[in-house]
Amino acid sequence: MTDATTYQTPTEAEFSDYIALLKPRVMSLVVFTAFVGLIVAPVHLHPLIAFCSVLFIAIGGGASGALNMWYDADIDAVMNRTKSRPIPAGKIAAHEALALGLALSGIAVMMLGLSANWFAAAFLAFTIFFYAVVYTMWLKRSTPQNIVIGGAAGAFPPMIGWACATGGISLESLLMFALIFFWTPPHFWALALFMKEDYHKAGVPMLTVTHGRRTTRRHIFAYTLVLAPFAIWLGLTSVGGPIYLSVAVVLNALFIWRGWQVMRRTDEQSHADGHKAEKSFFRLSLIYLFAHFAALLVQHWVGA
Amino acid sequence: MALRTEHELHTRRKSRNIGLLVVLLAFVALIFALSVVKVQNGGGAALEGFDHQVRPGLLPREQGVEIRPSDNPVAAPGTPGAEAGARTAP
Fold first, then answer.
1. Model pTM?
2. Residue A233 contacts residue A175 (beta carbons within 8 Å)
3. Nearest Cβ partner of A14 from B16, B33, B37?
4. I need a labelling partner for B85 at 20 to 30 A (CA). Which of A25, A205, B64, B69 fits?
5. Residue-wise over A266-301: b if at least 16 C-beta within 10 A, else e?
6. How high is the ipTM of this complex?
7. Nearest CA to A51 among A164, A163, A127, A130?
8. In chain B, which residues have their Cβ closer than 8 Å to the Cβ of A52?
9. Which of residues 6-35 of B touch A (CB under 8 A)?
């Protein structure tokens, strides 16, 4: 290649493009929930070991994001929401994303094993495998239950954080898992209700595409009902308390009520007001998860 | 001189290289700090017990059990512990 052709390349990657490959927004959720899982655990960790543990869990999450972008580059190029990601935008080659994802996965797992313990490291390795292979390669393109089962990958971080401190699994960590696991489907289906065209174009079998919007609305409400008992139950364990329980009761009542409203609406009503209720439910779902984990943290500091 | 011209491409590569440098330096600093913390928190004893013969001194002490020099299987030659061990050997 001559200098002339090199200069003609307008989209050489910057450092920030590699960061974008790690899905920093998803990573922030991973960091927060893993941090809470680690802090509320009954075993105290040295602050630096705790910091390293959360950092390597986050890097593991970022690595699985890069592997997801490598495999899904064709889908990302079609969807409006994702077409500016580094691979479809032509800034980073797909094989570079694969290499980065594999290398960071190895580093994150090894370093978590050395800084915390090997159980947590094995758990992180399984989570990366679950997201990159089970969800991205097997489920996403084949079943409308993709995000239901794939949601487990996003629900593991607080369990890994807990495992970093305790070296195992307990009821509390399983309930934190359940909280995210049952929260994921209504969160993404609400998004799919007002981003339907994107998934349709890409041929991703979201519930809205395969079973229609009426069924999706019913599923959203059903999941808010399933989610509530787990959220309340967590408040009755050793990590819960009055602060967490108050937050959980209020937010779950609100979540069920908004889910009911979304279910009762027709598509005509939804189109008429620009999917107002669906967008509002989606925003509430973000607050819901953040507030639950923040309440666990406050409860821990105040005293369970 | 054309060769010294700073093209926009060079600026972007520079940002990438500096970013990588910062990440690598931070990683080295982190490993160092982690090593210090691990050793200070008893990681050294655990390591010693891992690839050497375990000394009774590394084991958690039991209530009411006195550790005598003859219990030490690796007592240095010429020490009372080694002599006691030799006397009790079959």
1. 0.82
2. yes
3. B16
4. B64
5. eeeebeeeebebbbebbebbeebbebbbbbbbebbe
6. 0.80
7. A164
8. 30, 34
9. 7, 9, 12-13, 15-16, 18-20, 30, 33-34
